[in-house]
Design goal:
By secondary structure, the chain is α+β, with helices and mostly antiparallel strands. Helix content is 47%, strand content 12%. It is built from 14 helices and 8 strands. It has helices at residues 49-63, 95-102, 107-126, 178-182, 189-205, 215-224, 230-233, 239-248, 260-271, 280-288, 297-318, 329-344, 349-359, 368-392; strands at residues 10-18, 22-29, 35-41, 73-79, 82-88, 92-94, 139-142, 147-149. Helix 11 packs antiparallel against helix 12 (329-344) and helix 13 (349-359) runs antiparallel to helix 14. The longest helix has 25 residues, at 368-392. It starts with 9 loop residues before the first strand and ends with a helix.
Length: 393
């Protein structure tokens, strides 16, 4: 997405990043001189009221929060056909970029991020807001080490009847909790704590807690496997911090910290050379039940097969083995989408939405708009399924 200067109050300075819904720009208020972050909805989505309302909803949720570890919202508007949300600009970097550069972090850094994000989650939770997409890419850190949680585009507010409304159903595979992947409407603050745990695990070890050759394998491991102890990967990590991370990543939400305040209390204990209040034996037993024998191979096979079909097509296309390497972009997009559609038939609506989301990374440019339409349809199906399940309960 490129942008000229369509706003009367803001001067666009540079592009900061982009996501599925829009682009974030560094901008300056022309009269006040304040530098801000301007999140602009993609023009292709501006005619879809669901996406416009989702941007407005994010702005309202951010405006309801006021915490030093949460990015502040300033303004919301529409001008020249562009819908935009104005936020505080953080002069720093995302944790995602720092992980890519540094790999493994010191325990001091891990605790620092854990504490500040937990405070942000506690503030939001006290006001009925569940973030639902805690991950390194949504954690900003300035030069002084101050942490800001951002991007409430998937957040659930206190008046939302279901987690699946507005087409926003799932977070990011490497950091999503098992219950959010399986039944998004059941996710609560413990799901956010799981995602924070997955983020801390990545910081402490240099790798996410679950990996896989395909999206389906990652999701299956998230839902059915126990992670390798972070202490086994990073012997320099204290046993106490390893226990905290393992508790955050418990498959059963009842075994995790029940509130961000409980996590903060255990971090305080570690700081004062006390052991955290973690039942190591109970945790080990739960992890043991999720060992190699707990893998539901049939589920993995059923989900992996369609992904392998798409993967085979993509490798062939990348190597130039398609019938006509010089074919037009729209023809390549059509072929890509046909393979994608055939591979997604065996997936339920929730995993199918994630499947379409992940496929965007490898999609030919001409396929992106049609891919977004498929994702929206899958999210809508998941929302209907979630509402039906809720009504039966």
């Amino acid at each position: 997405m490129t942008l000229a200067q369509p706003f009367s109050d803001y001067e666009i300075l540079e592009r900061v990043g982009a996501g599925a819904m829009g682009t974030v720009w560094k901008a300056q208020h022309k009269r006040l001189g304040r530098v801000v972050a301007l999140k602009v909805l993609k023009p292709s989505l501006a005619s879809d009221e669901r996406y416009v309302e989702r941007l407005r909803r994010e702005a309202r949720l951010v405006a309801a929060l006021n915490h030093p570890n949460i990015v502040t919202g300033h303004d919301l508007g529409e001008e020249g056909g562009y819908h935009y949300f104005v936020m505080e600009f953080v002069e720093g970097r995302s944790l995602r970029s720092l992980i890519a550069e540094w790999g493994m972090f010191s325990e001091e850094w891990v605790r620092q991020v854990a504490r500040q994000v937990a405070r942000a989650l506690d503030h939001a939770w006290q006001r009925g807001v569940i973030h639902r997409d805690v991950k390194p890419g949504n954690i900003l850190i300035d030069a002084a080490g101050n942490v800001k949680l951002t991007d409430l585009g998937l957040a659930k507010g206190p008046t939302d009847a279901s987690l699946t409304r507005d087409g926003a159903t799932l977070g990011t595979p490497y950091y999503i909790s098992p219950e959010q992947a399986r039944e998004p409407e059941t996710a609560d603050v413990r799901s956010d704590l799981y995602s924070l745990g997955a983020t801390l695990y990545h910081m402490a070890t240099g790798v996410p807690p679950f990996q896989g050759a395909t999206l389906a394998e990652v999701l299956t491991n998230v839902m059915s496997e126990a992670p390798v102890s972070p202490l086994a990967i990073n012997p320099g990590l204290s046993e106490e911090m390893s226990l905290v991370i393992r508790k955050l990543l418990a498959k059963d939400p009842a075994l995790r910290y029940q509130t961000p305040r409980e996590l903060l209390d255990d971090l305080d204990r570690i700081d004062t050379a006390l052991r955290p209040l973690v039942d190591a034996g109970r945790l080990a037993r739960a992890e043991g039940e999720r060992g190699g024998g707990g893998r539901r191979w049939w589920q993995l096979a059923a989900m992996a097969l369609p992904l392998l079909v798409l993967g085979g097509w993509w490798i062939a296309w990348s190597l130039g083995l398609t019938a006509n390497a010089a074919q037009k972009e729209d023809a390549r997009a059509t072929e890509f989408l046909a393979a994608l559609d055939g591979g997604s038939e065996r997936l339920q609506s929730g995993p199918r939405a994630l499947w379409f989301k992940a496929a965007a990374d490898n999609a030919p440019p001409a396929a992106l708009e049609r891919l977004a339409q498929r994702r929206v349809a899958a999210e809508r199906d998941a929302a209907r399924a979630g509402a039906a399940g809720a009504s039966r309960r």
